[in-house]
Amino acid sequence: MEKVLTRNFGLENSHRLETYLKNKGYQAARKALTKMTGPQVIDEIKKSNLRGLGGAGFPTGMKWGFIPQANPKPKYLVVNGDEGEPGTFKDKYIFEKDPHALLEGIIITCYAIASHKAYVYVRGEYVKSMQTLQAAIDEANSSGYLGKGIMGTTFDLDVVVHPGAGAYICGEETALLESLEGKKGFPRLKPPFPAVVGLFGCPTVINNVETLSCVGPIIANGGEWFAKLGSPKNGGNRLFCVSGHVNKPGVYELPNGITLRAIIYEHAGGIPNGRKLKAVIPGGISAPVLTADEIDVKMDFDSLKAIGSMAGSGGIIVMDDTTDMVWAAMVAARFFAHESCGQCSPCREGSGWVYNNLKKLYQGGARPHDLANLPGIIGNIGGNTICAFGDAVTMSVGSYVSKFREEFENKIKERVCRI
Amino acid sequence: MFTTDLLRQLDKIAGQYEQKQAALLPVLHAIQEKEGLISPESEQDVSRYLGIPVVHVHEAVSFYHLFHQTKKGKCHFSVCQTTSCALLGGEDIIEHLKTRLGIKSGETTPDGKFSLSVVECLGACELAPMMQYNKEYRGFLNKKKIDELIDKNK
User: Fold this and answer.
1) CB-CB under 8 Å, A83 with B123
2) What are phi and psi of A188, to 5 degrees?
3) Is B109 exposed, middle or buried (0-12, 13-18, 19+ CB in 10 A)?
4) ipTM, two decimals
5) Would you call B84 an interface residue with chain A, using a CB distance cutoff of 8 Å?
6) A92, A182, A250 ranked by CB distance to B25: nearest
7) Any CB–CB contact under 8 A between B33 and chain A?
8) Residue A154: how many other CB atoms lie within 10 Å
9) Cα separation of A388 and A266, whole Å?
10) pLDDT tens string A182-220
11) What are the tens digits of pLDDT across the range A208-254?
């Protein structure tokens, strides 16, 4: 299989400009800036079927096309490197192993949307990632790949690394914008969408690190080449992050459309200690959990959606048959309760209720109505909040309760509070 | 009041943004790096420097968990308790640290040497169970590794 995103990962000093240039680095940016117009670049990205790899899966070329070029305000590119979705750790590898591939994607994207300023929002804990990226920006600035008159053209671009400060919700694109403007990371109501009113009230494209790292190879090889690598409407490869009960946890670059079974058993080495698979979260903790007999699903946005889950951020968390699913639901709910930003009451209060209920169910002290009430509490969160975080609580926790119902009922029988 | 050196650093940061308030998070990071916490006095200074109400600065300091209002110990353990780490024994690591250090999450030992924070996902599930030790990521934790780290820094 042809490697796209990880093509340079194994090279010595893969993060350095010198290494990147030796391996055809910045040739795609040169091609875009000297031989293509912005709309031509956008058309090529549309042809590639590249979708937002941060989790939403929105068609990238279409998103860029929403930027109103007649608007006289400055345009911005904001790179989402907040990477807070549990189970996901791919952007960290791009930052640290191939930051110039990201920068090349940023240059081409900014050229396409006529932006001269990009902010890369990196999660605050990723200290090494920020240092590596900043060093790459400094190299690019001093070598004419960033700054004024890039590669002898009239195109100027300034890239700034912006540190987050530890809040999951800032991975949500409008919360990220609020955070980048120096405020609490509270999601904004949409519409207006960021393409029209984004950073500092100006038209803004927000893309994930992995998405932008695909842009250089697409321009170099053509949109159709990229589309053929994946499955219908899901162009290219993805970085799948595998963790939990597997022999070889790590990041794997594989084509969209590969089965979950192949990822777990052929690439990640299967389940350790002769155990059996019990459940898998296929796309980060927000994705509804799958049972062991659902793993022949193709790993792309549409196939996972069709079976009631989602491809999300590509974070696969594997659970073996020793896993107590009431406990697993409680751990997920603890995360949601902790990370709810608090802006919307249904999410703020509901996520706490869900967690407390599950804690009682798991630890003892629950009464039968605690389980009976759970679907109602969960149901009152989803669809009633500004951002999709509330839906994530609903879909994720709800999937544990519905797919492993018997375990929840048994827990009630074993540990019921009789007062 | 900011020192001349810090002010120079902050001016460089703030110069990267079209609106000065946007520099709030990196400015707070720079101050915490130097002083070890964000004190009420620093909040006042930041408010004056960025030209925003002090309540906005305080809101940010209390909203984002990487900002501390009290000093952390010389060795700060931030241990992940989210799914991948929990599946591989993260909760046992947290309990072991609590026992060894005699403190709860959010506390610092009386000698100021060790602090413990139990945190949600750090984005390194491939290293599970893992933690952030000061600024470094440490993975595949077990009780022996924890004990060695504590003993070395006692």
Assistant:
1) yes
2) -95, 155
3) middle
4) 0.97
5) yes
6) A182
7) no
8) 8
9) 33
10) 999 999 999 999 999 999 999 999 999 999 999 999 999
11) 999 999 999 999 999 999 999 988 888 899 999 999 999 999 999 99
